[in-house]
Specification:
This protein is α+β, with helices and mostly antiparallel strands. The chain contains five helices and eight strands; from the N terminus they run βαβαββαββββαα. The protein has a single domain, classed as Maf protein, CATH 3.90.950.
């Protein structure tokens, strides 16, 4: 398929790390990826949903309407068992609306002060929504199990990656190269499912 005839997909995120992971996970598809910046979209969508699914759909719907393009958006959360599932859907705003990744990490570690290693189990969840201009909507989910470290380690990830430890690899998510992270992370697993769904939409000519 010539490049000019490839369907265009808007990856609707302002987070460069997330955009890089999603584009890498979907790079084998016959699609042209575009961004909010490339489409001249400056508006932000308030993540007011009570669930990851609701927030992913809110963003995908709004940006598809703004761009007129098939749009992919995601929302992810961190569920820590010792904190009864917090921060969950509020992971990005857990330490305050404008907190940096480092501030979020420090805040979460402070909440777990005194909690022993065997009680620091956690789960990353990601939900990807794809919305087409026709109104068709699709959802995919990915999860990964791990635990929270006592100190950040690694510089390759973003968000809570430096304190999310994968026992089977003896590494945090932030110590993994992108090609490995995308095979086992919550976002990578959701993107793998999304890739199959997008491939189906392309074959059915739903994406154009």
């Amino acid at each position: 398929m010539p490049k000019s005839s490839k369907p265009k997909l808007l990856i609707a995120t302002g987070n460069p790390g997330k955009a890089r992971e999603l584009a890498d996970a979907l790079k084998h598809l016959s699609l042209r990826f575009t961004s909010l910046t490339e489409e001249g979209i400056e508006a932000t969508v308030e993540e007011s949903g009570a669930t990851l699914e609701a927030n992913a759909l809110l963003k995908a719907r709004a940006y598809s309407q703004a761009s007129g393009l098939p749009t992919l958006a995601d929302d992810s959360g961190l569920e820590v068992e010792a904190l009864h599932g917090e921060p969950g859907v509020h992971a990005k705003r857990y330490a305050g609306e404008h907190a940096s990744d480092e501030e979020r990490v420090r805040f979460l570690l402070s909440k777990l002060k005194g909690v022993p290693q065997e009680q620091r189990q956690a789960r990353f969840r990601c939900v990807i929504a794809v919305v087409l201009p026709s109104g068709q909507e699709e959802l995919c989910e990915g999860t990964v199990e791990g635990c929270i470290t006592f100190e950040p380690k690694g510089a390759l990830g973003f968000g809570y990656d430096p304190i999310f430890y994968l026992p089977e690899l003896d590494k945090t998510m932030a110590e993994l190269p992108l090609e490995i992270k995308n095979t086992l992370s919550h976002r990578g697993r959701a993107a793998s499912k999304a890739a199959e769904m997008l491939r189906r939409l392309i074959s059915q000519k739903e994406l154009s």
